[in-house]
């Protein structure tokens, strides 16, 4: 590979070292002071062994798994470890009532038994290019919508130079320090991914929603896949002729165990943080975004749970969607409460007083904070509407599908409709319906629509509601204060929906007309809310976001100028590869309570509840645990099987499935969660209680080997004893 050089003028003099273990670092910019601190804490690797664009390094074993998780290569035959919840959708799609891989678990005894996963891909990072000058020169002094439009144009132009579908190369530009730095990332995409194995759901999701974001934890949150390549070793579409990938690097697996104080590091793809936001944005998040997001998801989850409890077939249909909704329902519920409890807005305002004192007399910065306040004040009255529309109305499956008909209507209304375009659009919708029907449960969707529509009517300002919409419901179905009115309305809508009647839909595909769409109650419902949002409120949101981006960019620049040489700034997470390190450590969440750094199989048994949705266990697992049949995987010091452990590494969503490495770069665990005591860490990090929750790799191996009997997988790994 050609030697790689990069300029980092913006960062020069800024990156020194963060306090404690906070920081999601761009691995490429691992400075000497940071590296020296790592060595002091126990790291035995060189910087180049961790991350290099010119030589093979640990970086080459780290992948983007699917659309929002991390995975790692753990064998010379392309074997992938990631979290169970990361593989959940793929496993769910392969499961049937007869072969319920979610419920029962599965391990392929040979590559011939591995199951192809349609639509799943992984990406390897190939290159990073600093494009800051090219982007900022093009943007000049533009602001607001003009700046965003120009950025879209210039970024597309740059990406086009590096992306190459014929070579399976993707390219994306990441904005850093709120638009003060731009880096382009090139990835190689592999789309022949096969399911190798997972534990029963009772292990992979042990603790369910109750334990989600909580410690102590006893979840075996892992799944196993494999990436395949062409015979020549490159990416290729699925083919029976493909072979397991021979990777540039794979991670050895440590059997030596861990102890309190051990050095840990994590490489992965954290999704998003906003740790440099102004207090007014945090206030908007706390008082408007979080509670209304939670309220909508709560309605959807409750309606789904009622139907899921009726049969295993229904549970399988909805399992993946339910898990995804539940995860961030709990997250934002806890975040909003914690932002209040910890006085984050008030604390940030104290920091802003220092900035204001420094900014006075500096025209570029002195009015920034008052402009932040004015921008938020102009928008916040619409934030409830935004959540009720986005998380509520558009979260209804039928509404989401019906929204696709808008393009058909637009084309049909033209003086000379493009028949080919209409046919293509209808086929796309038909394909979507066929795929979505595998997961669709009409009773749940109908009940969600009834409840969400009532919520919108009851809580969104009347002057923001679709004109005349609720009056028509009252006229036809009765008093809007009566619960039965909403049920009758929803029943009628679903009974007459075009997309839910195969005969009507087939006839419409053969002869689509505007009149038929106007007679479809689901389309008219969708159109009323969609047009109202797009016409009256979406432009306001765009204006708010554009102004916020302009202010944020200047504010970030000002903070770095004010603290140059005094304080370190790492960029917010943005789904690009990051490096974080810390140590294995317990914590004290509140007065009189101390949480140890590890949990064991004994704790799994203590939580066990026969027949419980979240804490049941398969009979064979129960027997093995009671017999303490841990094989070679028991911890020699604890004399028990360690299930999960804590470290101080700084992670967030997207890090799920990331490898936890010891000082020598050996795999000791998989990161899968954060703790509730600092769930607000996307916005404000608390060094005293923030912990990363990880499944111990020995527990993973025990589940594969002793429980699953898949010694073929164990034999493929490089076990370090």
Describe this structure in words.
This protein is of the alpha+beta class. The protein folds into two domains: 1-121 and 191-268 and 579-721, no CATH class; 279-555, no CATH class. It is built from 26 helices and 23 strands. Strands 2, 3, 4, 5, 6, 7, 8, 9, 10, 11 and 12 form an eleven-stranded antiparallel sheet that branches. Helix 9 (279-308) runs antiparallel to helix 11 and helix 14 packs across helix 22 (521-562). It is globular. It starts with 24 loop residues before the first strand and ends with a strand. The model is unreliable at 1-19 (pLDDT under 50).
Summary keywords:
disordered N terminus; 721 residues; alpha+beta; 2 domains; 8-stranded antiparallel beta sheet; globular
């Amino acid at each position: 590979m050609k030697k790689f050089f990069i300029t980092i003028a913006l960062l020069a003099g800024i990156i020194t070292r963060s306090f404690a273990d906070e920081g999601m670092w761009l691995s490429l910019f691992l400075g000497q002071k940071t590296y020296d601190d790592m060595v002091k804490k126990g790291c035995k690797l060189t910087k180049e062994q961790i991350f290099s664009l010119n030589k093979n390094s640990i970086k080459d074993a780290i992948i983007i798994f699917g659309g929002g998780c991390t995975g790692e290569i753990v064998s010379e035959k392309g074997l992938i470890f990631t979290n169970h919840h990361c593989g959940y959708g793929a496993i769910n799609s392969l499961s049937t009532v007869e072969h319920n891989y979610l419920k029962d678990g599965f391990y392929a005894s040979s590559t011939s038994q591995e199951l192809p996963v349609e639509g799943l891909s992984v990406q390897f990072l190939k290159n990073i290019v600093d494009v800051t000058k090219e982007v900022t020169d093009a943007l000049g002094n533009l602001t607001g919508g003009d700046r965003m439009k120009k950025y879209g144009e210039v970024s597309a132009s740059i990406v086009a130079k590096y992306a190459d579908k014929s070579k399976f190369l993707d390219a994306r530009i990441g904005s850093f320090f709120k638009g003060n730095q731009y880096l382009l990332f090139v990835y190689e995409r592999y789309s022949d991914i096969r399911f190798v194995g997972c534990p029963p759901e009772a292990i992979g999701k042990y603790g369910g929603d109750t334990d989600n974001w909580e410690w102590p934890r006893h979840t075996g949150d892992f799944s196993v896949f494999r990436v395949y390549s062409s015979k020549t070793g490159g990416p290729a579409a699925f083919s029976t002729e493909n072979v397991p990938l021979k990777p540039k690097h794979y991670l050895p697996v440590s059997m030596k165990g861990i102890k309190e104080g051990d050095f840990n590091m994590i490489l992965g793809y954290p999704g998003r943080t906003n740790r440099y936001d102004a207090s007014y944005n945090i206030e908007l998040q706390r008082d408007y975004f979080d509670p209304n997001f939670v309220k909508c998801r709560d309605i959807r989850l409750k309606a789904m749970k009622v139907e899921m409890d009726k049969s295993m077939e229904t549970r399988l249909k909805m399992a993946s969607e339910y898990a995804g909704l539940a995860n961030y329902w709990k997250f934002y519920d806890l975040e909003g409460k914690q932002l209040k409890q910890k006085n984050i807005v008030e604390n940030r305002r104290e920091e802003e007083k220092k900035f204001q004192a420094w900014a006075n007399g500096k025209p570029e910065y002195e009015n920034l904070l008052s402009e932040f306040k004015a921008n938020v004040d102009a928008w916040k009255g619409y934030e409830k509407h935004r959540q009720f529309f986005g998380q509520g109305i558009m979260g209804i499956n039928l509404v989401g599908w019906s929204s696709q008909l808008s393009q058909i209507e637009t084309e049909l209304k033209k003086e000379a409709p493009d028949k080919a375009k209409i046919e293509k659009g209808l086929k796309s919708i038909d394909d979507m319906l066929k795929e979505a029907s595998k997961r669709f449960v009409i009773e749940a969707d109908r009940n969600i629509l009834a409840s969400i529509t009532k919520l919108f009517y009851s809580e969104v300002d009347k002057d923001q509601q679709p004109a005349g919409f609720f009056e028509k419901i009252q006229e036809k179905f009765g008093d809007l204060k009566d619960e039965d009115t909403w049920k009758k309305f929803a029943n009628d809508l679903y009974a007459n929906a075009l997309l839910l009647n195969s005969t009507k839909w087939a006839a419409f595909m053969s002869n689509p007309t505007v009149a038929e769409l106007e007679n479809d109650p689901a389309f008219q419902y969708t159109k009323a809310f969609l047009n109202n949002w797009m016409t009256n409120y979406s432009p306001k949101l765009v204006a708010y976001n554009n102004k916020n981006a302009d202010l944020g960019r200047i504010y970030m620049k000002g903070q770095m100028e004010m603290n140059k040489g005094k304080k370190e700034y790492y960029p917010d997470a943005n789904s690009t590869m990051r490096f974080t390190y810390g140590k294995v450590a317990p914590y004290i969440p509140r007065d009189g309570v101390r949480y140890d750094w590890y949990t064991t199989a004994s704790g799994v048994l203590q939580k066990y509840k026969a027949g419980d949705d979240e804490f049941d266990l398969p009979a064979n697992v129960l027997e093995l645990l009671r017999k303490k049949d841990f094989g070679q995987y028991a911890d020699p010091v604890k004399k028990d099987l360690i299930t999960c452990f804590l470290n101080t590494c700084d992670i967030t969503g997207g890090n799920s499935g990331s490898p936890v490495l010891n000082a020598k770069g050996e795999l000791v665990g998989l990161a899968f969660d954060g703790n509730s005591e600092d769930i607000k860490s996307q916005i404000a990090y608390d060094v005293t209680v923030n912990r990363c929750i990880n499944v111990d790799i020995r527990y993973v191996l025990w589940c594969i080997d002793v429980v699953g009997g898949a010694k073929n997988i164990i034999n493929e790994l490089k076990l370090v004893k």
